[in-house]
Design a protein that fits this description.
Number of strands: 12
CATH class of the largest domain: Alpha Beta
Helix content: 40-55%
Number of domains: 2
Radius of gyration: 19 Å
CATH architecture of the largest domain: 3-Layer(aba) Sandwich
CATH superfamily of the largest domain: NAD(P)-binding Rossmann-like Domain
CATH topology of the largest domain: Rossmann fold
Mean pLDDT: 93
Shape: globular
Length: 318
């Protein structure tokens, strides 16, 4: 079995690639930019010399087709995306090109080579539906640039299944956190600030609710969905934990491991006013179908994440 993991140098893609390598699978990744942070993710998780890396861009159709054909890819986990909401709202075109065009390129290559695709979507595709947990049957109403781009990719993937019969499954997970995340997100940002001896920032008046899942749990769910493609084919599946928390709760959980540091309250940046106020997933479908549930509590996940950063702070320059 040869498996392509796009976005292999991203935090979640690297963790999934590591699990696949440990299972004895042959893993191919796509490397767009070679930069210290991206490569250190592979190196720090110990798989930089255990996977094949094809150098190119998912927005290049001929390149994507070559990789899928040359390596005789059987399965594709499609993570590659530009993932930061505020960045997308500033520079929309690169977000749409990577997240939408990159996705249809993956699907064209999969269609031609009879490969199965798991598309890594997000709870943000649902947009705002009040305070009701999102069901897979809810309309996709993501309105921020990133949210809309992922919803478009979601639709592209499912259309290839409907029209051409390409085997696909869509995962829609809540906020993922864990070791080796170099993106500018709440949990890694807070930990990095603390390692520098700086105060993490709480945006005054922002009490948006988010659901959280540890990276090992979400990657386990990805494997369940792909390994059971005969049951999951053509469908979307929510992946969550039921645990929700606002930014202040999350930051104070991290600060338990940095007792000498206090958070700093500042006025919220303008982009926060466009954020979805409440996000929670209904996970009855995956729970009832596969008896799947997350194993790592939020407290344990934060402990593991903080410990990883502390163990690697010298290598990472903190």
């Amino acid at each position: 079995m040869t498996i392509l993991v796009t976005g292999t140098t991203g935090a979640v893609g690297t963790h999934l690639a590591k699990k696949l390598v440990e299972k004895g699978e042959r893993v191919v990744g796509i490397l767009h930019d070679r930069h210290p942070k991206g490569m250190s993710t592979l190196e720090l998780l110990g798989i930089d010399k255990k996977i094949y890396l094809a150098h190119g861009d998912v927005t290049d159709l001929n390149f994507v087709k070559r990789v899928v054909s040359d390596y005789e890819i059987n399965k594709i986990f499609h993570f590659a995306a530009l993932p930061i909401v505020r960045v997308g709202n500033v520079s929309p075109v690169p977000i749409f090109k990577t997240n939408v065009e990159g996705t249809w390129n993956i699907m064209e290559a999969a269609k031609e080579n009879n490969a199965t695709v798991l598309y890594v979507s997000t709870d943000k595709v649902y947009g705002h539906h009040g305070n009701e947990p999102y069901k897979e049957t809810f309309a996709l109403n993501g309105l921020n640039i990133y949210d809309a781009s992922k919803a478009m990719g979601d639709q592209v993937v499912r259309s290839y299944n409907y029209v051409y019969g390409t085997k696909i499954v869509v995962s829609r997970s809540c906020n993922i956190y864990g070791p080796a995340d170099f993106n500018s997100r709440l949990i890694p940002n807070t930990i990095r600030n603390c390692l520098r001896g700086e105060s993490p920032l709480i945006f005054e008046g922002i009490d948006y609710i988010r659901e959280w899942i540890y990276v090992d749990d979400v990657t386990d769910a990805f494997l369940v969905l792909m390994d059971n493609i005969d049951k999951t084919n053509g469908q979307a599946w929510n992946i969550g934990t039921g645990f929700t928390a606002a930014q202040e709760v999350v930051i104070h959980e991290v600060l338990k491991y940095f007792p000498n540091i206090k958070a700093k309250v500042i006025p919220p940046p303008p982009y926060t006013k466009k954020e979805i106020p409440y996000q929670k997933l209904d996970i009855e479908k995956i729970t009832k179908t596969f008896n799947w549930k997350a194993k790592i509590s939020f407290e344990e996940g934060i402990r593991r994440t903080v410990e990883w950063w502390k163990q690697n702070k010298d290598i990472l320059g903190f």
